[in-house]
């Protein structure tokens, strides 16, 4: 059995943190290495502990979730950060994705669904609360409507990478599947985001599911 993922909890509600710690510890897949009530404490604990994944509240007094998320990603870009919030507001969702969130879940999620989503996120997959899929899709439609009509050409490797992202593969699994390095996969993902005018893997997956996968010539439909 593989070692449990180390998890850092950042939320200003102590009862919620305690409940989350008990939930994640009980499943055996996670080890809660830290539980703090503020963004500034969270950034400091990240530097000390280097956890595999952070579960982050969005609305906190003082240093809010977005500022904390930005600081976490600047400090350790490869650390996975899952936002866990009560906010289903579109602006909050999009701001979190722009700041580098690897997932976005609502606090009313079922415990079993939360465990599955955080486990997938820790393994490199992007996770979005199903209740928010339509919000993200509408944002993509608006962005497409305001974009130019010119077709975007993707290389064969970019097509392959996009298809695997859509299937939920992490960078490590994509690298293994294509026989390339993790660093090369990161470059392809960066190119895809730039070419398609998107900001996150979640948006890439949602965009592709909406019919954006390229045709056989590598042109975006």
CATH topology of the largest domain: Rossmann fold
**Helix-strand pattern:** EHEHEHEHEHEHHHHH
Rounded to an integer in angstroms, the radius of gyration calculated over CA atoms is: 18 Å
Mean of pLDDT: 85
Specify the number of helices. Answer: 10
Could you tell me how far the N terminus lies from the C terminus, measured between alpha carbons in angstroms? 43 Å
The helix/strand class is alpha/beta
Oligomer: single chain
The helix fraction, in percent, is 40-55%
- What's the architecture of the largest domain in CATH terms? 3-Layer(aba) Sandwich
CATH superfamily of the largest domain: Response regulator
The low-pLDDT segments are: 145-150, 215-221
Sheet with most strands: strand arrangement = 2-1-3-4-5-6
Top CATH class of the largest domain = Alpha Beta
Strand content: 5-15%
In short:
With 221 residues, the protein is α/β, with parallel strands linked by helices. It has helices spanning 14-27, 39-49, 65-75, 90-98, 111-122, 133-146, 156-166, 171-178, 182-196, 201-212; strands at residues 5-10, 30-36, 53-56, 80-85, 103-106, 127-128.
């Amino acid at each position: 059995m593989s070692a449990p993922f180390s998890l850092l909890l950042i939320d200003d509600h102590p009862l919620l943190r305690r409940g989350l710690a008990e939930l994640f510890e009980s499943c055996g897949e996670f080890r809660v290495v830290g539980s703090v009530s503020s963004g500034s404490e969270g950034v400091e604990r990240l530097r000390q502990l280097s956890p595999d994944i952070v579960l982050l509240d969005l609305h906190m007094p003082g240093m809010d979730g977005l500022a904390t998320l930005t600081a976490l990603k600047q400090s350790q870009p490869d650390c996975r950060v899952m936002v866990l919030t009560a906010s289903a507001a579109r602006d909050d969702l999009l701001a979190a994705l722009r700041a580098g969130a690897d997932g976005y879940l609502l606090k009313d999620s079922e415990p079993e669904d939360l465990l599955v989503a955080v486990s997938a996120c820790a393994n490199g997959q992007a996770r979005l609360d199903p209740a928010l899929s339509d919000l993200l899709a509408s944002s993509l439609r608006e962005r497409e409507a305001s974009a130019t009509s010119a077709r975007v050409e993707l290389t064969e490797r970019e097509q392959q990478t996009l298809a695997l992202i859509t299937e939920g593969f992490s960078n490590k699994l994509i690298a293994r599947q294509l026989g390339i390095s993790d660093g090369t996969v990161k470059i392809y993902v960066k190119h895809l985001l730039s070419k398609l005018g998107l900001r996150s893997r979640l948006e890439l997956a949602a965009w592709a599911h909406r019919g954006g996968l390229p045709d056989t010539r590598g042109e975006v439909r």
